[in-house]
Amino acid sequence: MVSELQRLVDAFGARLGRSIAVDDARLKLLAYNAHTGDVDDARIESVMHRGVSTALVAHVSEQGAAQASDVFTLPPCPWIGITMERVGIPIRYDDALLGYVWLIGSDGPVGDRDVELLREAAAQAALVLHRGHLGVDVARSHARELVRDLIAPDQALRTEAGVALVEEEHAVAGPVAVLVAMVGGEEGEPLAEERRLALELAVDRCRRRLPPSRGLALTRPDHALLLTIWPGARSQVIERNAAELAEVLREKLDAELGLGPAACWVGVGGPRPRLTEALSSYEEARRAAEVARITGTLGHVVAHKQLGVYALLGKLTPDQLAEGIHPGLRPLLANPAHRGLVETLRVYLDHAGDAQRAATALHLHRSTLYKRLHRVEQLTGLRLDVGDDRLAAHLGLKTAELHPRLPASTHAPDVVF
User: Fold this and answer.
1) Is 60 exceeded by the pLDDT of residue 111?
2) Which residue, 183, 174, 179, is CA-closest to 151?
3) pTM > 0.85: yes or no
């Protein structure tokens, strides 16, 4: 696209006998020819940095350039470096603003012939920029398809996608780590369009912090992933960098959603040595984000290696989770009237059976704690002074946190002391 624009600028510059420049819609310089007259500081800055100051962008906006439909004049504004008048015309395709073509006043007055040539240049530039934008959109769409294939169950498909991503220069080869972002909602339920767009924008902004071809993003119905590539880096370095990037992603999600950090979670998968092994890291990252969302106790940025027993439990289906809960514990968990007993048991076991610390955490007298634990033993058939029973109870509570629903209890509500 840039080479086409440069040829266009050179051709029209020769026909006009003066300097001509093409900017994109944000006033980033895309192409220009040799200057035949004097230039001001604004033009020098544009050429040297391929961009202009925010003050100059504001000046152009204030003059109504974005709303113009034909040739317009941009007056001087010395305090931002524009000491020479500009004559410009918007570049539009189907009314969409793609950029501007500029002539500078130091080359002399702009006559009727110059205006006609300027309109012709803008029309041709519109075609070039439109094709370029289409090409970028097509390339991004194809890259997303390849990322989708890269995390597909089919090994052959993953291999082909990894090769294509590198060959087509969407990605570089090297170790990978995947981040998965989720926002408030039920697991597996598609997000509302507003939240989906906010999620996509946050992940894309985070991707742009990485060097070119080292970050690939994909938005799914209920989450988004950011695949990061770290050529030559060791696992510890990758883990540290991925964790830092995950914190940035959470902050951007928080800013885009405006719902507070409690409404978003980021999971970090472990490093894998090759692009074609990204699926494993993705599954870990997704599991970490899901567990963090469901439990609400692990924080909002969680690495898979921090999950502990949840890493194992998270691999099980809901039916398998239900089967793994001690049969005596199921009615206790299923009956809302037993919530006080369940919380007492959880705190007691989380404090490794230390009655004094558990009573303090629950704001109970120790004798009340013992009464509640005895009631738990009566209802479940578990003996909390037996190691295997205590382990079964603790695992059952952790399992229940990941279970979306439990069967209704047929037991009558008990009295909580």
Assistant:
1) yes
2) 179
3) no
Average pLDDT score over residue span 171-190: 83
pLDDT of residue 412: 34
Report which DSSP code applies to 82. B
Residue 100: the pLDDT is 94
CA-based nearest residue to 292, from 261, 328, 318: 261
- The answer to whether 396 touches 381, Cβ cutoff 8 Å, is no
Both tokens of 243, joined, read 């964790």
Question: Which pair of tokens denotes residue 156?
Answer: 């052959």
- Sign (positive/negative) of CA torsion 54, 55, 58, 60? negative
Q: Please say if the pLDDT value at position 163 is more than 90.
A: yes
Q: Which pair of structure tokens corresponds to residue 220? A: 């799914």
CB count, 10 Å around CB of 38?
12
SS3 167: helix
What would the two tokens of residue 146 be? 């390849």
Whether the Cβ atoms of residue 234 and residue 157 lie closer than 8 Å to each other: no
Pair of tokens at residue 106 = 């130091």
Report H helices in 233-299: 235-257, 278-295
Instruction: Determine the residue type at 84.
Output: M
* Alpha carbon distance 203, 216 (integer Å): 10
pLDDT higher than 70, residue 246: yes
Would you tell me how many other CB atoms lie within 10 Å of the CB of residue 137?
Answer: 10
pLDDT of residue 416: 40
Closest alpha carbon to 220 in 159, 323, 169, 144? 144
